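Annotators were shown the component list below and the corresponding predicted structure, then asked to write short factual statements about the assembly.
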Amino acid sequence: QSALTQPASVSGSPGQSITISCTGTSSDVGFYDYVSWYQQHPGKAPKLIIYDVTNRPSGVSNRFSGSKSGNTASLTISGLQAEDEADYYCRSLTSSSTWVFGGGTKLTVL
Amino acid sequence: EVQLVESGGGLIQPGGSLRLSCAASGFTVSSNDMSWVRQAPGKGLEWVSVIYSGGSTRYADSVKGRFTIFRDNSKNTLYLQMDSLRAEDTAVFYCARGRRFDLWGRGTLVTVSS
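Structure shown to annotators:
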């Protein structure tokens, strides 16, 4: 049950686009299309922003998008805004019917 | 209102036991997969356990044999029984709904320290 691999930090200027990667294995990210992404602001509970690789829950900005290629999933945030500054986590189902998170990525909006 | 409210956290000595509760409102716990997720101070999210709607359970290797997840359908509440607690179990514990983890509670802090 090793954590999925995410970059520790990414940054971008307002209006720019950034992409956060999430690398797993053929037993989790690569096997299922059950990859989700969560946004967490300091002191707050995580919030679902992408599910099943590419889907956005109702109310989530279309500036957030997800994709997957092989064992790596990606979250792209376009038109960066100050309120996007937060920690982001990916999560995947595993072949053991357990769940695994990525280590998290801190997004800084410059 | 659809929400989850965790309770039961606190300060406990190493080796002790604690039971966390997650009270649901606005939906039925037993009709959903329900999970516990924890976050150690300053660290990332760690999945802990799931109880699927059918009743089967799974655990992270780090808690297997020490933690037990269960639900009380009459109270519409999810629980996490935590035994043989260790310092490294210190964390905020969240409950989350469904396969998507689309609804989270605010969390309850568990501190394991002598």
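Statements collected:
1. The first strand of chain B starts at residue 3 and ends at 7.
2. Chain B has a mean pLDDT of 97.
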